[in-house]
Amino acid sequence: MTDRRTVILGLAAVALATPARAGKPFAVLFDGTSLDGWSSMGDANWTLADGAISADRGGMSFLVSRDSFRDFELRAEIWVSPDANSGIFIRCSDRARVSPANAYEINLFDQRPDPTYGTGAIVDIAPVSPMPKAGGRWNLLEISARGPVLSVVFNGVTTVDGVRDTAHAEGPIALQYGAGTVRFRRVEIREI
Fold first, then answer.
1. CA Rg, the chain, in Å?
2. What is the mean pLDDT of residues 85-91?
3. What 3-state DSSP class applies to 108?
4. Strands 85-90 and 52-55
5. 123-157, pLDDT tens digit by residue?
6. What is the pTM of this model?
7. Which fold has domain 24-191?
8. How many CB atoms are closer than 10 A to CB 145?
9. What Cα–Cα distance (Å) separates residue 35 from each residue in 30, 157, 160, 161, 189?
């Protein structure tokens, strides 16, 4: 009886000493060294160098994740030139034709002619005001997709706060090159 009590007390002590986890850990989708798990679409000159994937010429192009995701938190380190047009598309319903019509586009476009859906916005879903600027430095973009609720945090500032939309439920992630210079250094995801 004493041994059993000792074991139970010992397990209880370990459980109390172990900090509670907020959920699953983040998984690395892109670590700056390999494009395993991604396919290229379009003709941008994607190159791996200095721990990042970069493009600085070519037409509209995407790196599309092999896996699809439904509910998740995503964080990505991104560097863009001031004239860049880039972004991250989530829940793409057609991996062969990525567009704002069949996915959610979280925009990185400081010089967008209509800044309503510029950097930090979800194109045609959630405008941003004031629009932050991404050009010329490394930025941290955090995206949360929980059922119909979408949120975006750009460099620690919430730019989209819990907008609801049910158009796209699941699909791959796509990293966009549209213009200028674009670099992705680290992309991580935590499914929830």
1. 20
2. 98
3. strand
4. unpaired
5. 999 999 999 999 999 999 999 999 999 999 999 99
6. 0.88
7. Jelly Rolls (2.60.120)
8. 23
9. 7, 29, 29, 31, 15
Give residue 110's pLDDT: 98
Residue 4 to residues 1, 10, 47, Cα–Cα distance (Å) = 5, 10, 60
Please say whether the beta carbons of 177 and 61 come within 8 A: yes
What integer is the mean pLDDT of 29-52? Answer: 95
List of residues 6+ apart from 135 with CB closer than 8 A: 80, 81, 82, 83, 84, 110
Whether the predicted pLDDT of 86 surpasses 50: yes
**89: closest CA among 176, 13, 2?**
176
Cβ contact 86:58 at 8 Å: no
Residue in this structure with the two tokens 């995206």, named with its chain if needed: 143
